[in-house]
Amino acid sequence: MKKRGLDSSDDEIDRAVLDLVQGGEGDGSEPAGQRPDRSDRTADAGTSQAAAADSDSSDDERPNRNTVGRVPLEWYRNEDHIGYDLDANKIMTKKKEDRLEALLARNDSGKALRTIYDEYNDEDIVLTRQELELVQRIREGKFPHVEVNPFEPEVDWFTRDKEIHSLSQAPEPKRRFMPSKWEEKKIVKLVRALRKGWIKTTAERMVSHEEPEAYLLWEDDGLISSKTSHGLSYLPATKTPLPGHAESYNPPKEYLPTEEEHKGWELADEEDRAGPLARAFPSLRQVPAYDRFINERFERCLDLYLCPRTRKKRIFVSDAKSLVPQLPKPRDLQPFPNSLAMRYLGHTAPVRSVAVDASGQWLVSGSDDGSVRLWEVATARCMRTWDLGARVHCVAWCPAAGLRIISAAVGKSVVLLPAGVGAKQEAASLQALQAPAKAAGGKGALCKWQPRADGEGLELMHQHPVKHVTWHARGEYFASVAPTGNTQAVLVHQLSKQTSQNPFRKNRGRVVRTAFHPSKPFFFVATQNHVRIYNLAKQALAKKLLAGSGVTCLAVHPSGDHVIIGGEDKRLAWFDLDLSTKPYRSLRYHSQALRGVAFHARHPLFASASDDGAVNVFHGMVYQDLLTNPLIVPVKILRGHEIVQHEGVLDCAFHPSQPWLFTAGADATLCLFTNQ
Amino acid sequence: MAAIGVEDDTQITCKLITKLPQAYRVPGVSVAVPSSITRLGLSKMINHLLELDPVKPFDFLINGELVRQSLKKFLLANTISAESVLDIEYVFAVEPPKPKQQHPHDDWVSGVAMRADTIITGCYDGVLRCWQGGEVRSTTRLHSGPIKAVALLPEEQGSLVLTAGQDHTVQLVHAPALDTNADATEEATTLAVYRDHTDAVASVAPSPQGTLFVSSSWDSSLRVWSTGASVAEAAREAAAAEPEAARAARAKRRKGEAGEAAPSAALEQRCRQELSGHSQCASSVAWPTADTIISGSWDHSVRRWDAETAVNVDTFNGSKAVYCVAAEPEGSELVAFGGAERALHVWDPRTPIGRETSQKLYASHTDWISAVAWHPTSEHHVATASYDKTLKLWDLRTAVPLHTLQGHTDKVLCVSWAGNILVSGGADCTVRSYTVVM
């Protein structure tokens, strides 16, 4: 850049100002590149770029000397000062040069043409070359700043061409493809309001606006039960008797008093008079006003006010027994187990589970002493004992015909044992329990099928402690329950293929029991508060029963239409699956938590075992026609077990054909109750 | 009532009659006895009249019913007039049975049979034992499971025993101990195995001739099979014809298969006839006369079958499971049965069901009746075994048991007669025998 002398630059500026004043013919490009020297200014603008950058800011504006503000300056015209400075001292008006001197000075000074008088501050300002340029550019209608290019090449950010990648690299947020929760809440609110009639559709509003043409004038006369807006029920006043013939203005002659009656009436005390005397008038027009009207009204008001009116709310029942529903007598509902016939002794710890085989010949029991025992039902002989080493929580028979396989839930495994009673069953059962050709299941498998380490049978090693085993009626599938297994709480196993599967990806709540429907492809899963019924064919939830709290046991009626559930809330709930999700009957007969419930396969009987040491036997008749509700009659309380450490009867099972009940107790015995 | 007139010091005129031999007959005159007299008094009177030296007790029957209380009470209870002459029949009283012998076993005794001096017992360990004079003559392991019943074939068929096992088989066993000529210490041998049952066999009963037998099983069927000397002979011939090597191979194979002691070359027998009708376990069966089979079942029914045609002739439906049946051997067709209740039932199939006379109850046991055995010669006497650890001896002409035999310390499971000797076995692993003098 070329450095110029002070004077030469001033000359140039003057010329430019002249151009400006004379019409702006001057060449604008030449001074644009020149660097001005602003000797009369305190601030140096620096480079031209810096000047461009500073042009927006107000830093380059001169600070005002005067502080009077925006007041008309005429106010100070006749004063000796023009205002005040920051220190509140008067700024005195410059001494005016006379015109001649001013003209001379103007002609002498090279800067005269670019000097402006600032009236506010009362000083002369010499415009810089840059400021002149700015003024010139504004006059020409250009951008005030030199470096602003109005025709910059356009960057096409948003085109109509579709790009593969989004402009922002942020992943698509989840809310874009999730239904909005708030919208849903709002919709639910609206739906509820619509259902309850809080808001009305247009059609409804049209209907409701239609005024009835005629309405009953005395509609609320007879309403006794309707409540007032205060919430009190309205009791209408007793009605006054209607006037009779005697009160007529022209009564029949027999109603008219005789002379004596008239006299008697007049002589009588006012209190004793029985109503006004009958009088006859020839026409209604001549009937005078009733003189006692006000008195009678007043007395009636007093009567109503002083006489308390209440409604009887209690029902008086002469015979309380008539309120009790008529139930048949237990002796008409025989047979049912009513007396202790036999005890099966041998276990040394509480017996947790008991099961009877399909023929009714064998009984199997599992106990805390780690043993499973096989008993002959008729003689109470222990035929076989398997020592499994851990607590046996549940035993069950495989119901398949021709097989006699006992399944037991022991620790973390389900053990399948051939019962070994008789040659042929033995052979078939053994064949069914042949060890798998290849050890199925690696580390990630649900459970591992392997031959038992000591003796015959198979062992299904689970990953969690197994508490319950239940079989499908055909004996092909069985389900195991491991309550702590979370997503693997329920496993369904197939005996013939020796495979296991997990039917549920997730279980809602802690699964306690499962059961198969006796004939249909339904599966009952009892968690602590609910029983869910799944349709295995459709793979969908069919029904959810509200079972109260703390479900411990479950039994399905042989017809499959009814379920009984026992819980820790001491209740036995009977659910009719055709009716509702709430219990059809809730039976509270036990004083402690229930431990086992059972249906009889043939007789209309069911039983519940409880920690209070009692077993309740009920008659539960289910009728074939769908109109009659089941008949439930408690028939017997059986006591045979002692309570050991707050545990009483731990399980119960009915004999498949006889009306006999087997119970397993915490006192390490099994009892057989029969009908006598 | 008709018994009016029976007072404290009333004399009852009665006539003592009897069917006993001449030596025990009193002159047929009416005597007057006080109404408070009991059978002891009457017995003393007869002993006095006959001047019997060893005093013999008598029992007395009025209208076919045994007198168990004083005459007065009996007449009142049966509403018999005390004014007319009363016919009192007297018979020998059954004296209290005397315990004869006791045989300790290794396991529960579930089947017992006796002939002459030999007792055959079947146990829960599957072993058949032969006892003679209080000693074990032979011990043979026959069944892989418990033996549920044993039955002797009649003497003319030879010394043959049938055993019913829980391993679904019935075996025909030759027991030399029964043969007086043979060496008693010889082991019993299985001659034939009957295998058609599909579940545990509960009981067996041979026909009176001993050529057939019927077995009842938990598979709810009854099956008739041939047995007896002819089958035994065939088995022996087959065994003789079979070469030694084959026999050994067969024995080995069988041992490997079922894990049981191999019956040496036992003949396999097929069932001749199946009697089906029961819906549950046929728990007990009896074959009293050649053409009648009686069976009892857990389905609460007792059925009478025609042995020839295998037709169910008659059915009695009770209310409790039936565990045991016994039929009167001499053809009066009475059936005694007991089961899962405390009373012994006697059913008379000759009267239509529903009549009062068709069924009679004998209640005295305090637990289930597990076995019942009819006396082989007397039509009135029945022995019952019960889970209440007792045996009871009944005369069906009175509702009160004649005697209660205590001795077993656990459930009594089986009872059998041999002449006048009563044998019983039970869950206390003993067999006890009693002598009954009639």
Give the number of domains of chain B.
2
Number of helices, where a helix is a run of at least 4 consecutive DSSP H or I residues of chain A: 10
State the CATH superfamily name of the domain at 331-436 and 446-674 in chain A. YVTN repeat-like/Quinoprotein amine dehydrogenase
Question: Level of helix content of chain A?
Answer: 10-25%
User: First CA to last CA of chain B: what distance?
Assistant: 36 Å
Oligomerization state: heterodimer
Please identify the top-level CATH class of the domain at 331-436 and 446-674 in chain A.
Mainly Beta
The appropriate CATH architecture of the largest domain in chain B is 7 Propeller
The count of strands of chain A amounts to: 33
Largest interface: A-B, 21 and 33 residues
Would you identify the regions of chain B where 5 or more consecutive residues have pLDDT less than 50?
1-6, 253-263
CA gyration radius of chain B, whole angstroms? 24 Å
Radius of gyration of chain A: 54 Å
Structural class of chain A: alpha+beta
| CATH homologous group name of the largest domain in chain B | YVTN repeat-like/Quinoprotein amine dehydrogenase
Mean pLDDT of chain A: 83
Largest sheet of chain A: 5 strands, antiparallel
In the CATH scheme, the class of the largest domain in chain B would be: Mainly Beta
Global structural class of chain B: mainly beta
Top keywords for this entry?
heterodimer, A: 676 residues, Methylamine Dehydrogenase, Chain H, flat, disordered N terminus, B: mainly beta, Ubiquitin-like (UB roll), five-stranded mixed sheet, 4 helices
Task: Tell me about this structure.
By secondary structure, chain A is of the alpha+beta class. Among the domains of chain A are: 96 residues, no CATH class; 335 residues, Methylamine Dehydrogenase, Chain H. Chain A contains ten helices and 33 strands. In chain A, the strands form nine sheets. A five-stranded antiparallel sheet of chain A has the order 10-11-12-14-13. The longest helix of chain A has 17 residues. Chain A is flat. Chain A starts with 5 loop residues before the first helix and ends with a strand. Chain B has 438 residues and is mainly beta. Chain B has two domains: 82 residues, Roll (Ubiquitin-like (UB roll)), CATH 3.10.20.90; 297 residues, YVTN repeat-like/Quinoprotein amine dehydrogenase (Methylamine Dehydrogenase, Chain H, 7 Propeller), CATH 2.130.10. A five-stranded mixed sheet of chain B has the order 2-1-5-3-4, covered by helices on one side. In chain B, strands 11-12-13-14-18 form a five-stranded mixed sheet. A four-stranded antiparallel sheet of chain B has the order 6-34-33-32, with no helix packed on it. In chain B, strand 20 and strand 21 form a beta hairpin. The longest helix of chain B is centred in the middle third of the chain and has 15 residues. The N terminus of chain B is likely disordered. At the A-B interface, helix 10 of A face loops of B.
